[in-house]
Write a structure and sequence with these properties.
Chain A has about 375 residues and is an alpha/beta fold. Chain A is built from 13 helices and eight strands. In chain B, the strands form seven sheets. In chain B, strands 13, 16, 19, 20, 21, 22 and 23 form a seven-stranded mixed β-sheet that branches. Classes of the chains: A alpha/beta (about 375), B alpha+beta (about 475). Chains A and B meet through helix 1 and helix 13 of A and strand 5 of B.
């Protein structure tokens, strides 16, 4: 572990050590005070279930049931911790690895796989969950999120001191911070005091490119240049991730402007199922981070204070297994949608060209002998 | 009854077409469960472990370790209901038919029959029937969806046709014709259903078997646009353009003009000295001075002394056509093939201008920009085989010409010079001529003159 640069521990907020000891922090400790044992158990449970789902999805891809899968293994604390700090008046713009956040927003996990089976571009109602569709273009949604946040301010949904006050949380990775879009979004958000929390999960790799090849300084330091208050948190510490997000959301909802959070974590899996991380990182590195597993440390802590029983662990395991089975069955039961549905959401209003193309395509489809049999 | 499922090679990356089977983690007869390691494969991207897709018993491993398997091909079969009731009787084998006693299996017999079902070969045979569950039997084989018969009016031509016009640019249509590909059968990949050049080439490739590599790692550009024959053991390339014209010209020339070739070995040390001197001459600083330039000049001088060699045989008119000009052809190997562009009125050119023209001719040929006019109207030619390290050859006449000079490699060799053995620059010259109009003596004199000038360029002054 380096002492400087984007992979150092410089300025990390940590409230739970990797060996399971509870720590305090002068500024952020109080934001975790509302986390009682029941809340922490819930977080542990969510992380466990999300990881099981993640592994099931990986298997399904390897069995040819999914075109692609994007694992979030290792990033559960950053996602579940920040997700638990959200309330219904907030709105999330995820990128494509935020399965944990999706879970906290009430998205039924197997539904996510519609995207990765190539059936739908989006698989949930963003308005119903306060959770936008996944964006696959790196960093593109940072601008959408900023615009949405600016609109929320204009709609009077910020700074009233009411429960209706909300903020946008935009999730992206370390690689996205190198994109123009993200830098433009930070600029706009800063000068407009947009109620938005930029949540960077620094998982140390932009596919295969180390964060050290993208920045000389910890990513959180970039916020200063935009005039955006920033904080760097141990992304494998679910308590600290919750605490800094709680602070950031309160700041943004109050109308004080944007915040940048860098959650320093580690992508324990591959970038996607198409990737082979052994080509660009060492087993020693993987072993180092395996010791810092976000789920294990919370489990150690909860067991240490007598708040996690064997029965609870067993129940969670059974639930995870059941989710795996349900995921498998759900995915295998999905039929292929009519190909013509791809014309459905190109425009919100009827459109002559699209209608003509749709008609041509239907005619073309009908020319095949096995029409209808391919579902 | 046992229920079978087939597992097909998945695309473990994005858009992979095949994978190598590295290690099977299970064996036939093994009881397996969902997500236990099944097989390790290696793709173009990575080493990947495939988890087992079902709970059940492995009944068949369809590919061996080390095999390269197409994505979509079946690789393993499972009995996902090994405890299920086996089929009791087989038609025609009902033992009770003769005796009049119908045998009914006892519960013990049933259990016995069910237990070994997994490892016995019987279910495997069953699996070859059309009773696979889940995955269709045809998956991975037929990728193209069949079209309805008569559902579409043909657009023209044989083969699979569609009811909308094929979109393709004219050169692509021509390419399809050349490659023998029916364009209406090509799957378009371009924007708006446009058939692209790549689509046609792909279709042509798909049509023919892959050729065997003659030697591993060989690049064989001459095989381009060919198709394989003989089960991939050979490739047949349609004869086109330059190759076709070369062949026609060679056949016409070789079988109409009786060729005779004479040879001469010459000490060209003086030519090499001259080349060296001209290279540093300010007047020649804008041109490339090579021994070819001197041999061209020497041939022009020889033609001047023996103009009757610069002629052609007009078979139809039964006349010999003597040319009062020399269009000097230089055989050139170009990206298109062998071409013989000529320098017009080369007999009038002073050495510097000749060098300029020669340089331009060579440059154009190398860049594949030789103008058609430069390829016709030649009267006599030179083929410069020396740069290939060849001493000389027996060149075939460019059709319509009566002589061609081959200029071989110039080497340092022991040579008797002024009564002593010295190391001298030596080359071989060969002159092929049309014996119908050029007698041996004339041919010999022309070649000797060329050799004379090469040995002593000053002779050019005397004859010039």
């Amino acid at each position: 572990m380096s002492t400087h640069g984007p992979l150092s521990e410089e300025g990390l907020v940590r409230l739970l050590s990797h060996t399971g000891e509870r720590l305090d922090h002068p500024d952020f400790g109080r934001y975790a005070s509302e986390l009682d044992a029941a809340r922490l158990r819930r977080m542990w449970h969510d992380m466990t279930v999300v990881r099981a789902f993640d592994q099931e999805a990986t298997s399904l891809q390897r069995q040819g049931e999914l075109g692609l899968w994007v694992q979030a293994v290792g990033q559960e604390a950053a996602q579940i911790g920040s997700g638990h700090a959200l309330r219904s008046s907030d709105f999330v713009f995820p990128s494509y690895r935020e399965h944990g956040v999706a879970h906290t927003r009430g998205v039924d996990l197997p539904e996510i796989l519609r995207i990765f089976r190539g059936l739908q571009h989006g698989a949930w109602d963003p308005a119903a969950h306060g959770f936008h569709l996944y964006t696959l273009v790196i960093g593109a949604h940072a601008l959408h999120a900023t615009g949405y946040a600016m609109a929320m301010a204009r709609d009077g949904l910020v700074g009233t001191g009411q429960e209706t006050d909300g903020a946008v949380v935009c999730y992206f990775g370390d690689g996205a911070t190198s994109q123009g879009d993200v830098n433009e979004a930070l600029t706009f958000a800063a000068v407009n005091d947009a109620p938005i929390v930029f949540f960077v999960q620094n998982n140390q790799f932009a596919i295969s490119e180390s964060t050290t090849r993208q920045s000389r300084v910890p990513l959180a330091q970039r916020g200063a240049g935009f005039g955006v208050p920033s904080v760097r948190v141990d992304g494998n510490d679910v308590i600290a991730s919750y605490a800094v997000t709680q602070w950031a959301l309160q700041h943004a909802r109050s109308g004080a402007g944007p915040v940048l959070i860098e959650a320093f974590t580690y992508r324990m899996g591959a970038h996607t199922t198409s990737d082979d991380p052994t080509r660009y990182r060492s087993h020693a590195d993987e072993a180092y981070w395996a010791e810092r597993d976000p789920i294990a440390r919370l489990e150690t802590y909860l067991r240490g204070i007598g708040e996690l029983s064997d029965e609870a662990v067993e129940a969670a395991r059974a639930e995870a297994k059941e989710l795996g089975r349900r995921t498998r069955e759900t995915v295998k039961a999905w039929g292929r949608p009519e190909t013509a549905t791809m014309f459905d959401h190109v425009y919100a209003e009827p459109h002559a060209t699209v209608a003509a193309e749709r008609a041509w395509f239907s005619r073309y489809e009908r020319s095949f002998a096995d029409q209808g049999a391919h579902a | 009854m046992p229920t079978f499922e087939t597992f097909h090679m998945p695309d473990a990356g994005e858009g992979l077409t095949e994978a190598d089977v590295v290690t099977w983690r299970v064996a036939v007869g093994d009881t397996v469960e969902v997500n236990q390691p099944l097989v390790e494969i290696e793709t173009a991207k990575s080493l990947v472990e495939l988890p087992c897709p079902v709970d059940g018993v492995v009944t068949e491993l369809l590919v061996a370790e080390g095999d390269t398997v197409d994505v979509g091909a079946p690789i393993a079969r499972f009995d996902v209901d090994p405890g299920g009731e086996p089929e009791v009787s087989v038609p025609g084998e009902v033992s009770g038919a003769d005796s009049g006693v119908l045998s009914v299996p006892t519960p013990e017999a049933e259990a016995e029959a069910a237990a070994p079902a997994a490892s016995s070969p019987a279910p495997v045979e069953e699996a070859s029937g059309a009773v696979l569950v889940g995955y269709g039997v045809s998956a991975g084989s037929a990728r193209r969806r069949p079209r309805k018969e008569g559902a579409l009016e043909p657009v023209g031509g044989a083969g699979e046709v569609s009811d909308y016009p094929v979109l393709a640019k004219p050169p692509v249509r021509r390419l399809a014709r050349e490659l023998g590909v029916e364009i209406t059968t090509v799957t378009p990949s371009g924007p708006g259903g446009l058939v692209t050049r790549e689509d046609v080439e792909q279709a042509a490739k798909a049509k023919s078997a892959r050729s065997l590599a003659t030697y591993a790692g060989d690049e064989q550009p001459w095989l381009e646009s060919g198709y394989t024959a003989d089960g991939g053991r050979s490739t047949r390339v349609p004869v086109k353009s330059v190759r076709k014209r070369t062949a026609e010209a060679m056949v016409k020339s070789a079988f109409t003009a009786p060729h005779v070739t004479v040879f001469h070995t010459a000490d060209v040390t003086a030519t090499m000295d001259l080349v060296k001197r001209l290279k540093v001459d300010r007047d020649f600083s804008d041109v490339r001075v090579t021994p070819l330039l001197i041999v061209a000049k020497a041939l022009l001088l020889a033609v001047r002394r023996h103009p009757e060699i610069n002629a052609s045989w007009d078979d139809e008119a039964r006349e010999i056509v003597y040319k009062h000009y020399v269009n000097l052809g230089i055989a050139a190997s170009t990206p298109r093939g062998l071409l013989v562009p000529n320098i017009k009125d080369a007999h009038r050119l002073p050495l510097h201008e000749l060098a300029l023209e020669l340089g331009e001719l060579t440059a154009l040929a190398r860049e594949n920009r030789t103008p058609p006019a430069a390829l016709s109207g030649g009267t006599i030619s030179i083929t410069n085989v020396g740069p290939l390290g060849i001493d000389t050859g027996t060149p075939i006449l460019n059709p319509g010409e009566s002589a061609i000079l081959a200029f071989g490699a110039i080497r340092e060799q022991p040579w008797v010079h002024e009564g002593e053995i010295k190391i001298r620059w030596v080359t071989q010259l060969a002159l092929s001529f049309d014996h119908r109009l050029v007698d041996g003596e004339l041919g010999a004199r022309v070649l000797a003159d060329v050799g004379r000038v090469m040995s002593d360029p000053a002779q050019g002054l005397v004859w010039g």
